[in-house]
From TrEMBL:
It is an enzyme of class 3 (hydrolase). This is ribonuclease Z. It catalyses: Endonucleolytic cleavage of RNA, removing extra 3' nucleotides from tRNA precursor, generating 3' termini of tRNAs. A 3'-hydroxy group is left at the tRNA terminus and a 5'-phosphoryl group is left at the trailer molecule. Keywords: Endonuclease, Hydrolase, Metal-binding, Nuclease, tRNA processing, Zinc. One of its GO terms (cellular component) is mitochondrion. Its EC number is 3.1.26.11. It holds the Pfam family Lactamase_B_4. It comes from Acrobeloides nanus. InterPro entries: RibonucZ/Hydroxyglut_hydro, RNZ2-like, tRNase_Z_dom.
Amino acid sequence: MEQKTSSAIDPALVPSRVSIEVVSSGSAQLAPCLIVKTPLKIYLFNVPEGTTRYIKSFHVREVMVNDIFFTRALWSNFGGLIGFLLNRGPTNITRLHGPPNLKLFVEKIRSDVTGELDFFHDDSSENKGENLDAADVVASKTPISELDEFSYKRQRFEDPAMLISYIPVFEMSTHMDNDGKNSNKETNSGTLVDVAFLLQLKV
């Protein structure tokens, strides 16, 4: 984390302290997840399954988090996102930062569950009378906050306290150049892109 000096910053919005709290370092039970906490805001990095249970020990509630950052577009990194949003409820806007299509993922999961509910409750269905799991019913009906996606292609996110730069990390491919020498080139042809984040505290 770095400090960024600006003459146009309101001193009242600059955090008096910042802490980095590690929810998980990537153990077998929980993928990497950490919290950057200030007196005014909380930033969450990755939401693996079980996050809603673990963050309570850090005195953090879902409604306190408006910005969530993802380092990889893998289930291990965002498997707990739906549950997190359901617990958060329809309060404010939730911003999703990092790999693209995270907002689409949330919408797809919820629409799939709703579609299954419609099928099982359709009077003309041969499966009339069958029920989905109660958790599926809740997931399809419970309102969540409006989502805003900040893909790494936007390069940065800024609020009154922080300037956060997105640093995409692509795979390096080795091939022979015209001189017959090995050359490493960056490629973004794959769908998996790791994203690092540089946090600069405004002072």
